[in-house]
Amino acid sequence: MITANETRNPLLLEVKNLKVWFEIKQKKQWFWQPAVNLKAVDGVSFKLHQGETLGVVGESGCGKSTLARAVIGLVKATEGSICWMGKELAGANAAEWQKARGISR
């Protein structure tokens, strides 16, 4: 279904099922415990059209900054899709991210 907003304003950013997990290794005295995954962002999806503003709210430490860093390519996404103006950026190399950031200025 296409909403009225989608027909008037082009889609700039679409994030689907974004996950950012960090592997945490813990040392207990003389041995390492098995690694544990810290799920900083777990399955976030949203669309942002031209002219719209998105607010992300939540408690301290819930992943707001990590989400923003993943969307702009400063943190690598574990899973999911980040499309900027139709171009897939999740898994892109540094040069592709720099080009995309240049478009957004």
TrEMBL record:
* Pfam families, sorted: ABC_tran
User: Which keywords are on file for this protein?
Assistant: ATP-binding, Hydrolase, Nucleotide-binding, Transport
Which positions fall inside the ABC transporter domain? 42-100
**Its EC number(s):** 3.6.3.-
InterPro entries per the record?
Answer: ABC_transp_ATP-bind (IPR050319), ABC_transporter-like_ATP-bd (IPR003439), P-loop_NTPase (IPR027417)
**What family is this protein classified in?**
Belongs to the ABC transporter superfamily.
Q: Please state what the protein is called.
A: Methionine import ATP-binding protein MetN
**What is the scientific name of the source organism?**
Tatumella ptyseos
